[in-house]
Prior knowledge:
The complex is a heterotrimer of chains A (636), B (206) and C (255). Chain A has 20 helices and two strands. With 636 residues, chain A is mostly helical. Among the domains of chain A are: 2-75; 100-324, Cytochrome c oxidase-like, subunit I domain (Cytochrome C Oxidase, Chain A), CATH 1.20.210.10. In chain A, helix 7 packs antiparallel against helix 8 and helix 18 (458-488) runs antiparallel to helix 19. Chain A is globular, with a radius of gyration of 25 Å. Chain B has 206 residues and is an all-alpha fold. Chain B has one domain (31-61, 74-205): Cytochrome c oxidase, subunit III, four-helix bundle (Four Helix Bundle (Hemerythrin (Met), subunit A)), CATH 1.20.120.80. Chain B is 72% helix and 0% strand. Chain B is globular and about 60 Å long. Chain C has a five-stranded mixed β-sheet with strand order 3-2-1-5-8. In chain C, strand 1 (125-133) and strand 2 (136-141) form a beta hairpin. Chains A and B meet through helix 6, helix 9, helix 10 and helix 11 of A and helix 1, helix 2 and helix 5 of B. Bound molecules: heme-A (2 copies), dinuclear copper ion and copper (II) ion. Copper (II) ion (CU) binds at residues 328, 331, 377-378 of chain A.
Amino acid sequence: MAARFRAPGFYRAALMMLGGVLFATALTWIVRMATGHATFHHYLSPDAILTVSLIAVPLAFLVGIGGFDYWFYWAAGRATRPEDHSSHGASSWKDYFRINTDHKVIGVQYTVNSFFFLLVGGLIAMLMRAQLAQPGSHFVDGNTFNGLFSVHASLLIFLFIIPVFAGLGNFVIPLMIGAPDMAFPRLNALSFWLLPVAGLMMLGSFFAPGGAFADGWTAYAPLSVNAPIGQTFFALGVQFAGASSIMTALNFLVTIITMRAPGMSFFRMPLLVWANFATSLLVVIATPFIAASQFFVLLDRALGFNFFNAAKGGDVLMYQHVFWFYSHPAVYIMMLPGFGIISEVIAVKARKPIFGYRMMAFSLLAIVGLGFTVWAHHMFTSGMAAWIRIPMAITTAVIAVPTGIKIFSWLATLWRGVLHLDTAMLFALGFLTTFTLGGISGVMLAMVPFDIHVSATYFIVAHIHYVLFGGSLMTIYAGVYYWFPKMTGRMYDERLGKWHFWTTFVFFNLTFGPMHILGLQGMPRRVSTYASQFADLNLFISIASFGLGLSTLLFIYNIITSWRGGPRAVGNPWRALTLEWQVSSPPPVFNFDRVPTVVGGPYEYGVPGAVHGIFAPAPSPTVADAGAGVVHAPSQ
Amino acid sequence: MEAASIPHPAAHAEHEHHGPPAANRSSRVEPQLLGMLLFIISEIMVFGAFFTAYFFIRIANGDPWPAHGTTLPVGVAGMNTAILVSSSFTIHWAEQAIKKGNHLGLKAGMLTTFLLGCSFLFIQINEYANIGFAPQDAAQQTIFYSLTGLHGAHVFIGLLLLLFVTIRAFRGHYSPEEHRGVEVPGIYWHFVDVMWLVVYTTVYIL
Amino acid sequence: MGRQQRPIVIAAVSAVIAIAIGIVISYAIHWFPAQASTQAKESDTLYHVLVIASIPIFVIVVSVILYSVWQFHMKPGEELKDGPPIHGNTRLEVFWTAIPTVLLLGLVGYSFVVLRNNEKKPAHEIQIGVTGQQFAWSYQYPPSVTGGAAVNSNQLYVPKGTSVDFAMRSNDVIHAFWIPAFRLQEDVVPGITTHWRTTPTLTGDYPVVCNLLCGLGHSLMRSTVHVVPEAQFKAWIASQLSASSGGSTSGGASG
Ligand code: HEA
Ligand code: HEA
Ligand code: CUA
Ligand SMILES: [Cu+2]
C-alpha cells in the first residue's frame, strides 16, 4: 500500500493535494499572523486559503502524478539519466491515464481531453440557448447566465481549440518531419497534464461561493477585480493553460528546427509543420501577456494592488491593451494550425500539389507579423486615444490579404484536381465557405464607423462563431477524420461522417447566420434577457442550435464505435506522400526503424515518379532511384 | 478501444531494438540551448507586459514618479546592481574553468555567483522593508513593487538553478566535454542580470 | 465556343446572376433599426458599400468550390488518377494579392472619411453629461444648456437637429453608452471622460443600451432617448428646472 503512495500516480497525487491544502492553510495563517491580524477569526480567511490552494493543489497534483520526477532527480544532484523509453506506447486504455512521454500517446491524450471539453462547453451553450429562447425567461438566473457564457468561451478557447491543435500536432509533426519523438518528451508530458488541471479549475468555479466567474472570457478590469472568488479560478486556470501552451510551443519550435530528417529543408516541410511553426512563434511571444494580465488582476484582487484602481492612479484601459495584445494573436493561434490541416487535406484529396507552396508558407509568417499590430481593433469603442484607431484599422484590413492568398491558393489547388469528396474533404470545403464569411464580417468590423455601431453586439457573436466554429472547428473535424486511421488504426464510418458534415453545416448556418441581423438590429451580447422585438429570431436560433448540438452526437458516436470496432486501416489509405503515412497505422512505438531521408517536396501529386521520403540510407542527392526504398510513387 | 501505438509486428521482427533511432540533427544549435533562448523570449515578454503597465501609469497618464512624498534609494540599488553584474562575470568564469577542466575554478565560481545572488536578494528585501511605502498606496507604488518583485522572483528561481548546479559541481558532475548543465542555467542567469539593468534604469534612474 | 468551355461559361453566368441577386437581397433586407441621426445615415451607407463589395468575393469563392465539385469530382475508374502537377502561377498570385490590397485600402480609406465626417465638431453644439453606474444611466444638463442651474435627471431628452456631445463618466466599472438608432457607442470608463457626438434627425423614442458587461444587472441597464423638436426640448428643460429648483448641482458635464 505504501508503495502505491510513493510511486507516481493518482494515489500519490491525492495525498499531495491534501498536503497542498494544508500548506495553503498554514501559509496564509502565518502570513496573516505576521502582518498582524488581531483575532483568530481573521487568521483563517477562506478566500485567502482558496486562492493559495488554487496554486498549491494543482502543483501538488502534478508532482504526485509524476510530472516533475525527472527534474527532482536533477535538482537532487543525482546523475542525469537519458530518457528512458520504457513508458513509450500504450497497450491499454489505462496507459492514457499515466504520465507518458510518447508523443503519440500524448497526442491522443490531448485530443480526447480537448473533445471532452468541447462537449462540456457545447452543453453549456445549449443551456444558454435554452435561456435565450424567449425574452424574460427564468431558465437560469442572471448571474448563472453570465457564468455560463464566460465558462463556455473559456473552455472552448483555452481547453478545446488551442490544445486540440497542439494535440493533433503532437501526434503528427514528429512523424511528418521524420523524428522519433519531440525534442523534450518529459516537458511534453507535463504540458499535457496541465490541461485537465486548468479545465477542472474553470469548471469547478461553478461550485465556488458566489458562482462561476461571470465577466466573459475577456474578464475586463475593474469588474473582474471586485468579482466573487470564482474569478480567481479563471485567473489561475488561464495560467495553467497558458503555461501548457508555451511549453508545447517551445517543444514544437525546437523539434521542428533541430530534428528534421536529412533532406527536409524548410521548403520541403509539409504546410502543417509550417503552420505549427508559425503558431508556436505566436504562442511564445504573445501568451506571456495574458499571463501578466491575469497576474495584475490577481494582485489587485488578493493583495490590494492598484493596477486598475482608477481612484489611486490605476489605468483601466491598460488591462485591455495587455489582454488583447495576447488575445488577438490568440485568434490566429486558433486558426493557423487549421490552415495547415486544410492544406494537407486539400492537396491529398484533390490529388494535386498545393498551389503556390512558398506563398502559403510566407503568408503564414505575414499573418504572424501583422497579427501583433492589430490588437486595438477590439478597442475601437473603448475610449482609448482616438488616433490609435487609424493605424489599427489599416493593419486589420491588410491582414485579410495574406489570408486571402491562402483561400485563393486552396481554390486553385482544387481546380482541375481529382476531388475525393469524403468526410475530411467535405469539412475542408465547408471550412472554405464559412471561414470566408467569418473573415468578411471581420473585415467589416475593421471599418471603424461600422464597428462603432456593432461592437459588442450579436454581430460580434456571429463573427466569433463563423471564424471559430466555421473556421477552427471545421478544420479540426477535417483533421480528425483525416488522421483518424493513423491515430487509431481503424477506419471511421464514411456514411455517418457525411451525415455529420451536412447536419453540422446546415444547422451551423441556421444558428449563427441570423445573429448578424440581431446585432445590426441592436441586440447586445452578454445579456440574459432582451427586448421583445428580438424574440422570433432568438427562438429560431435556439431551435437550430439544438440541432447543431445533436449533430455533434453523430460525430461522437462514429468515433467511439469506429475506434472500438471499425475495419482495420492500412498504412496509407489516402495514398498520401507525407511521411506519417509511410509507416503502419497506428505507427510503431518508435515511429521509424531508421530515420527516413527526404528527397522531394511533400505534395508532388501527379508528378511522375515523385517521392517525398525514402527509408534507405540517402543515395547521392541527385539520384532519387526508384528502388526498394521508394515510399510511394503516385500513379498517373 | 485500441491503443494508439501498438508496435507494428513486422517492424519489430526485423531487428529488435530498445530505443528509437537517433534523431537527425538538422540544426547546429543545441536543442537545450535553443529551448532556453526561446524561453527567454517568453520571459522578456512577461517583463514587456509589466513594462506596458509601467508605461501607461507613468508616461501615458503622466503621474509623478516616484509618487509624491516618496523617494527611491537609488544609491543602495546602484550598489546592488554592481553586485548582480559582478555575478554575471563570476558565472562566466566558472564556465570557462570547466571548459578547461578546472574543477576547482568551477566550484569557486559557482559558489561566488550563488552568494552574490543571495546578497542581491537580501538587500532587495531589506529595501522593501525600509522603503516607507506599500504597493497598496497608489498605482506608482504598485508598479514599483511589481517590476522589482517580478525581477526578484526571477532572481529567486535563478538562485535555485544555481544552487542545483553548485551542488552538482561539488559532486563532480561536469567535465570539459559535458558542461551544458552549467551553460544553460548560466544563460538564464545572464538574462536575469541584463533584465535588472533595464529595470534599474527605468525604475530608479529615469 | 469549344465544348470544354461550356461549363465555365455556365458557371460564370450563374456567378454573375448570384451576385446580382445577392445585391438585390441586400437592399431588401431590413438590416437596421430606425435611422435617427446624420451619423447613422453615413454609417448605413458605409455598411451597404461593404456588403456590395463583399458579395462578389463570397460568390467567387463559393462558385469555384461548387464548380470544382461539379466538374472535377472523382468519377468511377479514377480512383488512382492524380491531377495535373501545377505548382503555381506567379501572375495569378500577384493578381490576387494586389486586387484585395487595393480594394481593402480603398474601403478603409472610405471608412476614415465617414469617421471624420461623423466626428467633426460643428459650429454649434450642446454638451450633455452621461453617468453610468451599476445598473442605471443618469444625465447631466449643464448650465450652458439649461440656461439656469445644472440639471441632473434619469431621462434623456435631446433636441432634433442640434449636435450633441455626450461626455460620459462612470462611477464604478466600465459600461458602454449605445444608442442603436444613432449607430454610435463608446465605453464609459472609470477614471476618464469619453465622448461621442451626434446630430439627431428623427423625432421619436429610441432605446439606450448598456453594451458592456458590467455585472448582474447588465441585461437590464437600459433607458430611452427622446428626440424632440427644439421647442419641446426647451420646455422639458424648463420643467426640470422648476421641479428641482435649488436642487441638483451635480451636473458638471464639461468635466
Ligand atoms: C479564429 C478566430 C478568429 C479569426 C481568424 C479572426 C479573423 C479576423 N477578425 Fe476577428 N474576432 C475573433 C476571432 C477571430 N477573428 C473573436 C473571438 C472576436 C471577439 C472577441 C471578443 O470580444 O470576445 C473577434 C473580434 C473581432 C473584431 C472586434 C470587434 C469588436 O469587438 O468590436 C474585429 C475588428 O476589426 C475583428 C476583425 C477580424 C479580421 C479583420 C479578421 C481577418 O483575419 C479575417 C481575414 C479573412 C478573410 C477576409 C476571408 C478570406 C479572404 C479573402 C477571400 C480575400 C478577399 C477578401 C476581401 C478583400 C475582404 N475580429
Ligand atoms: C471554439 C469556440 C466556440 C464554439 C465551438 C462555440 C459553440 C457554440 N456557441 Fe459560443 N462562444 C464562443 C466560442 C465558441 N462557441 C466565444 C468565444 C463566445 C464569447 C463569450 C463571451 O462573450 O465572453 C461565445 C459566445 C456565445 C454566445 C453569446 C453569449 C452572449 O453573449 O450572451 C452564444 C449564444 O447563443 C453562443 C452559442 C454557441 C452555440 C449554440 C454553440 C454550438 O456550436 C455548440 C454545439 C454543441 C455542442 C458541440 C455540444 C453537443 C453535446 C451535447 C448536446 C451533449 C453533450 C454530452 C455530454 C457532455 C455528456 N456562444
Ligand atoms: Cu452597464 Cu452593462
Ligand atoms: Cu482581433
